[in-house]
Amino acid sequence: MKAISSVLQNYTLDDKGGHITREFQDYAYRLAVELNDLDHKPIYMRMAKTVDRSILEQARTFVLDANARNRARLFMWKVRELREAKKAQSSYNQRGRI
Is pTM, for the whole model, over 0.90? Predict the structure, then answer.
């Protein structure tokens, strides 16, 4: 049996300078990886911080279930569609027609 210090000496981390310190950053990074769109990580970071998580999750599951060539484009389209639907629903409810 080896000492834990000897095992940890052989283990190295690939630190590329990026630091994920918040939950939304981790979510955005995982989303970019799933959509195969790492070039646009800042867009996903901003969306994870500002857009309702339920909308992002619905769009994410829609895209992963679909057989699309460009997952990122389909994701952005679905997010826009869901945001517009939610906005229309809230304006409808505000007029008192529940």
Answer: no
